[in-house]
Write the structure tokens for this entry.
Amino acid sequence: MSDAAIKDNPVVEEVTKHDVSSVVAVAGHPIHAMLVAFPIALVLSTLGADVFFWWTGDPFWARAALWSSGFAFWLGVLASIAGTTELLLVKGIRRRAASWTHAIAAMMLMSIAGTNWGLRIDNHVEVVLPLGLFLSMLGSIFVGIAGWHGGKLVFDHGIGLMVSNND
Ligand code: HEM
């Protein structure tokens, strides 16, 4: 985009003041944004499985929660590595307070998700009520907080956008 075109548009000017393009990306599409769908869905699935276990008492749901909490945690770690790399390497991301708010919320989420999985490894049935269910509820609240702040980085701050001046 030409400098003149950027100056004509205050929104684009603000977004492009510092580089906010993703460096951990496939053809400009951030890998972090591709990965986060998995931990988000799996944290919520773990809560669903815990509620079904509470409701039915069927150990199948406790086993489902063991697996979904494990994948939620490890895929979350993978997504966090991509996100942290962007945070540290891209100036326009690093210097925004909103990026750090998102990162702190995400780290709290990952601590809860890791605890929720780790507790279940030895005895995945007895731990569900009440502690597992409580951690799944807490994790779901933090998935909302971290996801909301992650979305703000894209929709409010234009992080990862490939800005085009074409109609
Ligand atoms: C410390 C760990 C993390 C850091 C530093 C981080 C950083 C970032 C950054 C820089 C973006 C902007 C898009 C990009 O450049 O990729 C972003 C977007 C986002 N992040 Fe994270 N993130 C972390 C962990 C997580 C986790 C664990 C989740 C949820 C499970 C999450 C959910 C999101 C969402 C939903 C978006 C918006 C993506 C979109 O709408 O396309 N992040 N994050």
About this structure: The pocket of protoporphyrin IX containing FE is lined by residues 22, 30, 32-33, 36, 39-40, 76, 79-80, 83-84, 86-87, 93, 99, 102-103, 106-107, 109-110, 143, 146-147, 150-151, 153-154, 159-160 (CB under 6 Å). The first helix runs from residue 3 to 7. The chain has a mean pLDDT of 92. The radius of gyration is 19 Å.
